[in-house]
Amino acid sequence: MSMPLTLSVEFRKIVEMQMDRTIQGIESTFFAIMEKQKITPQAVKEEMAGLQENFNVLFQKWSLEILYTLLLKKTSGFGGLKKILEVNSRTLSDKLKLLHTCGYIERNVQTGPPVRVVYTLSTKGKNTVLLALPLLYYSTSV
Length: 142
What we know:
Arc Repressor Mutant, subunit A; 3-stranded antiparallel β-sheet; 11% strand
């Protein structure tokens, strides 16, 4: 098991200030859109169904681990991901297919010989893992 990420006090303050600014910007934008477009709580509830579907995919075992690995490595082949994550081939294959189908990763086939498949984050995948970082931060903060 790996050690949790620990931040220095100075770095923690910088991270918290940046997250506060970002969250305030999102909040003000959200309420401005709600008011301008006269969006009802019922309409928001209906939109949450799509969010729930995405959360169900992201919070399945291995999904976030795959996405964060690709964020850090930029690209990786199947064997590289399998070695880093220490996951069996069938599980990894299933998760990669799901993440590709949902648009979180891109699958690029490089002609060989041998034929090689390389995985990278899509823009949606990159933005998703970056937006999830505050959740990781808050889950480990005291």
